[in-house]
Amino acid sequence: MKVTETNLGYLVETQGIVALLGGEKAHLTNLKASFPDFDFIRVKQTHGDLIVRSDSPALDYQIEADAHYTDLKHTALCISTADCIPVLIFDTTSGLIASVHAGWRGVANKIVPKTLTQLCRAGARPETLHVIVGPHIQMPSFEVGNEVRDTILSSIDFAPETSESLYHRKLSNEKSLVDLNQVLKTQLQNSGVIFDHLFSLHIDTFIDPRFHSYRRDKANSGRQLSFICKN
Question: What mean pLDDT comes out for the span 115-132?
């Protein structure tokens, strides 16, 4: 796997796959200029768990979903984020690719495991799935109410004695820091994804000015696009 930092973000090239983990300059106009041979497809993200097949560029930003997949070449599946997790998936058995938007609600709703299940129904195999996890808000910056913490943690099975040290850190009776990346990693392992097939960029969008962050900038925040494409 070749990973290169560019003015648009981090470019990942591997096994006939091109993926971009986008930064603040990764908007559609720049993507089209930099990758003129690709057809870009976006979905209307709702923080839900809808998964659709995206095969037609004519449907760009026409369908509500938080994950989409295809097996077509030169079709770039985009996800928009600003602290949420961009998750890019490819399968070396079926040739399927997928792009997933996973905010804390998406993680709690198991949007990524549900996408993996859908890909396996379409011909993928758990042991040949590869997952790329992009920059998102990291545990030191992700303070939430304990009711949100418990909702997120309910999406995984864990030993109670290891929960606090591995998945969250309690700040008070009302607040905790939660590690979305570690929760997602556990979900992937429970779904049969091989550890060596997981690549993560542990970059905190909240503190890194190269990335948009809604929690940092509120209404002034932009969005960055990430995508995966079969070349």
Answer: 98
